[in-house]
Automatic annotation (TrEMBL):
Organism: Marinobacter oulmenensis
Segments crossing the lipid bilayer: none
PROSITE patterns: N6_MTASE (PS00092)
Residues of the Release factor glutamine methyltransferase N-terminal domain: 18-78
Family: Belongs to the protein N5-glutamine methyltransferase family. PrmC subfamily.
Molecular function via GO: nucleic acid binding; peptide chain release factor N(5)-glutamine methyltransferase activity
HAMAP family on file: RF_methyltr_PrmC (MF_02126)
Enzyme class: transferase
EC number: 2.1.1.297
UniProt-annotated binding residues for S-adenosyl-L-methionine: 122-126, 145, 172, 187
Protein name: Release factor glutamine methyltransferase
Domain of life: Bacteria
Keyword Zinc: no
Binding site for substrate: 187-190
Amino acid sequence: MNTEPVATVDSLLKEAVTAIGGESPRLDAELLLAHASGLTRTGFRAWPEREVPAQASEHFRELVARRAQGQPVAYLLGEQEFWSLPLQVNETTLIPRPDTECLVEVALSLPLPEQASVLDLGTGTGAIALALASEQPNWRILASDRVAGAVELARRNSEALKLPVTVLESDWFSQIPRQRFDLIISNPPYIADNDHHLNEGDVRFEPSSALVSGADGLDDIRFLITQAPGWLADDGWLMLEHGYDQGAAVRALLVSDGWRTIETRQDYGGNDRLTLAQKPLGLSGQEAAHAE
Ligand code: GLN
């Protein structure tokens, strides 16, 4: 016979808060218990003495143990909200960050054609592309990722949310069908490979392919800035997310390649987070060769 004391909402949450520690143990515990039990967080407050069935409390304790090891809550829930869209997430790719919503906001404010064609490079979960699709049903949105698992995930999110985004497996531009976009948008990897942040918090569990980009974190951004003109309409825009301390470096790269209307914008925390620019005037030699 099972002689374990009956677990209640309150007892489980208390036990989890101690085990989890860190910055937001109560919130983490509530999210995990809601996920494991099917009960709501408001329900926890209304009825703390409520008994939790053995199977649910066992599942909850497993999740708490993984959280205590540092696993991101989003991976444990299998879901993260972005732009109010519930996105499925998994270890193949980055967990969407709230600050990336700033790219969506700025993209929606650009003077783009009614039926703009948009490319989201390194889409991961599909977050940026799907958020744009949810706001602009007339845009033609293509999203790509180099990682097959991320492509599959982005497609699943597109289907689950019934938002029409085409997702292709492609290492940056390599498999993109030749065309001219009105907007190329990307949250590329941009962390320097020796950055100590990589050993802290959620990023420890995220794939480095989505995070790390060479000695100064700018390898992929440099590549995108060089290649993008060949894929943009004459007045097309490039918008890149980058690190809080990379704004000046990204602007300098754009300036030296002749880009126009270069501007860095801040995230919700007031840090430089994205830079946008309009395609340089005239075909560069490199683009002419590339366009053949
Ligand atoms: N903003 C993320 C972080 O600081 C990094 C995202 C990225 O490299 N694209 O963890």
